[in-house]
Amino acid sequence: MSVLSQIIFVLILGAAGYLLTKRVKFLKRNILLGKAEARNDQPDRRWKTMALVAFGQQKMFKRVIPAFLHLLIYVGFLVINLEVLEFVLDGILGTHRLFAPLLGAAYTAAMNFFEFLAVCVLISCFAFLIRRNILKVERLNKPELKGWPGLDANLILVIEIVLMFAILKMNAADQLLAERGVGHYITVGPLFFSGLFRPIFEGFSDGFLVFVERAAWWFHIIGILAFAVYVTYSKHLHIFLAFPNTWYSNLKPKGEMKNMPEVTNEVNMMLGIPVENAGEPPAEIGRFGAKDVNDLSWINVLNAYSCTECGRCTAECPANITGKKLSPRKIMMDVRDRAEEVGKSLDAGGPGLEDGKSLLGDYISKEELNACTSCNACVEACPVNIDPLSIILQMRRYVAMEESGTPAQWNAMFQNMETSFSPWKFSPSDRFNWAEKVKEEEMQ
Amino acid sequence: MSTYKVPTMAEMAASGQSPEVLFWVGCAGSFDERYKAVTQAFVKILNKVGVSFAVLGPEETCTGDPARRAGNEFLFQMQAVANIQVMNAYEVKKVVTACPHCFNTIKNEYPALGGDYEVIHHSQFLQQLINEGKVRLQGGGEFKGKKITFHDSCYLGRANDVYEAPREVIKALDVELVEMKRCRTKGLCCGAGGAQMFKEPEPGNKDVNVERTEEALATGAQAIAVGCPFCLTMMTDGVKNKNREAEVKVFDLAEMIAKEMGI
C-alpha cells in the first residue's frame, strides 16, 4: 500500500512539474514578446531594491492595515513551505514526519509556529474576503475587476483558507492517532491550535481518523501543487514575479522619459548638425511608440504579469479619482490580457500578433491615454515597482507620431511650438518683455 | 541706487564674461501674466543677493516637455537639440529654473541629447541662499504666523524626489506650515502635467484642480504655496472655483521670499 501511494505521489509530483514547466515556458515566451532592453546596470542597487521592496515589503506599508494582513500571509507562505518540503520527502520516501525524530523538541516548536502562522493566514484571508466583498473597499470593486479578475481574487483567498484548515485538521487527527498508539503515528508534543480541533475528532474510530488524516495530507499537498499551477493562470503570479520585477526596477529619476535615438539623427540632419554614419542607410526603424505588446519593452510585459491587481495605483490616480476612464491597473491588466491572447494564438498555430487586433484600440482607448497627467502617483504607489506610466507614454508616442491622432488642442499646441517656440501662441520676440518692468525699478 | 539688472548670455559673452548660473525662465515665466511676477521676484532676489546670473532672453525656447508628454518626440527633440546648441555655445555649466517641468527635462532628458548641466530648481537655490545667510528675511512680514500649505508639484516631488527644499524655504518665513492629507510622495497632482495644461480634461465627474483645492482649503491655510507655474494656474483657478479668492491666495515660493525681503 505504501509503495503504491509512493508511486502515486511521485506521479502527481511529476505531473505538476510537467504542467508547471509548460506554463513557465508559455509565460516566458509571452514576456519576451516585448522588445529587448538591457537593464542590468548597478547590480548592487538592484539587489538592494529587491531585498527591500519585494522581500522586505517596504512599499506595502504605505497602507498599514492591508500591509500587516498581507505580511502575515506572506510570512506564512514562506515558512509553511518549509513544511511542504517534509510533505514532499515523506511522500516520496513513504515516511511519516521524517524530520520529527531528527529535530526533537525543535520540531514541536516548529509545528506550533507553523500552526500559529496557519491561523494568522486564516485570519488575514477572512479579513481580505470581508474587505473585498462586505466592506467593498473602493479600489477592490472597480469596473476592471468585474468577472474573472474578481473571481480569481476570491478563489485565491478561499483556496488558502481551505489549505490552512487542512493542515490544522491533519495535525489534530494525527496527534489523536499517535496518542492511541496507532500504526506509525508519532507524538510530536502538545500542538496548541490543532489541539482546539480535537474535540471534534475524539469520538471517531481509529480507522476514520486515519482516513481524515490521510485525506487532509493528500488534500494539502495536491492542493499546494494544484495551486502552484493555478497561480500561473492568475493575478497571484506576483508571489514569484515580484522578485525579478523589483530587480528590474527603473532606477532613474521617475520624471525622465526614455530618449528615442532613432529620432535624434533625423533631428540633427534637419538642424544641420553633422551626423555620425550619415552616409549609411538608416537602420530599420520599427514603429515609433507602441501600438501593441511587441512594441513595448519586455520589462513592461514583465510588469504586467507581476501585477496582482491591488489597485493602489488606481486609487492614487488623479484622473481616476475624478471619474476619468483611465485606470493604471487596467492598463497593466490589458497588457497582460493581450500578451496572453497573442501567446495562445501562437501556440494554436494562429496568427499571433497579426490577428487584426492590437493593444491600442481593442484594449486601451485613446481617451484613457489622454487622461494621464504623467504625475507618477501610480508608479510611486505600486508595492512591486510596476510602471504603468511608461506604457501610457509609449502609446501616446504611437498615437502622435504614427497616427497623428492627438486631440485637436494638442495639435494646436504643437503648431505653436513649431512656429513660436512656445506651447502658447505668443510672438517669440515678446519673450523677454517681462524684464522691461523690472529693469526700470530701483533696487531696494 | 541702481536699477535691477537682467543680463542676457549674449550680452555677457559680448563683454567676455560668463555668469555662474543661467536662469532658465521658461515659457510660463516669460508669457503668463501671473507667472511673470514670479520671474520678476526671482530676478530681484538674484540681484539683491548679488548672484552672478544671466538669462537667454529671446534666445530661449520651450524645452519641449509638453510635446514629449503628448507623444510628439520629434518636436521635443527639435526644441531640445536647438536649446542644447545654444547653451553649449555659451558653455553653460549650471542652470536654475522656477519651472519643475523645465527642471526635469533639462536635468534628466537633455543629457541623452548632449546637454550636461548641473540643474537645480529655484526652491533648492532659495534654500541654499537662506542657509548660507545670503537671503536676509526682515521678519514680521505679511506671512508671519499665518497658516500656509504647500502643494507638491509632481515633477519636483515624485519625479525628482525634491520634497524638503520648498518646505524649508516656507519654514524660513516664520509661518505655520500645514500639510494636506495627500502630501510629499502621496501628493495629488494639480491636473496640468503630461500636457494636460494645453487641452480640456477628458470626460469625468470633477476637475483634478478642484479636488486638490478642496484638500488645500480643508487645511484652513490662508495661503497656498506652490513651486510650479502650472500648479499656480491650476490652484488659483481652483480657489476661484470655490469662491475663496478673497481670503486664500496662491503664491510661488520666490514671491513669498521677495515679499519678506521687502523687494
Automatic annotation (TrEMBL), chain A:
SUPFAM superfamilies, per the entry: alpha-helical ferredoxin, Respiratory nitrate reductase 1 gamma chain
Transmembrane stretches, start-end: 6-21, 67-89, 109-130, 151-168, 215-233
Lineage: Bacteria, Pseudomonadati, Bacteroidota, Cytophagia, Cytophagales
Species this chain originates from: Algoriphagus oliviformis
InterPro entries: 4Fe4S_Fe-S-bd, 4Fe4S_Fe_S_CS, HdrC_iron-sulfur_subunit, Helical_ferredxn, NarG-like_sf
Stored PANTHER family: IRON-SULFUR-BINDING OXIDOREDUCTASE FADF-RELATED (PTHR43255:SF1), IRON-SULFUR-BINDING OXIDOREDUCTASE FADF-RELATED-RELATED (PTHR43255)
Record keywords, A-Z: 4Fe-4S, Iron, Iron-sulfur, Membrane, Metal-binding, Oxidoreductase, Transmembrane, Transmembrane helix
Limits of the 4Fe-4S ferredoxin-type domain: 298-329, 362-392
Stated name of the protein: 4Fe-4S dicluster domain-containing protein
Superkingdom as given in the UniProt entry: Bacteria
Automatic annotation (TrEMBL), chain B:
UniProt keyword Metal-binding present: yes
Domain Cysteine-rich: 21-107, 148-235
Keywords noted in UniProt: 4Fe-4S, Iron, Iron-sulfur, Metal-binding, Oxidoreductase
PANTHER family to which the protein is assigned, alphabetical: IRON-SULFUR-BINDING OXIDOREDUCTASE FADF-RELATED (PTHR43255:SF1), IRON-SULFUR-BINDING OXIDOREDUCTASE FADF-RELATED-RELATED (PTHR43255)
Protein name: (Fe-S)-binding protein
Organism annotation: Algoriphagus oliviformis
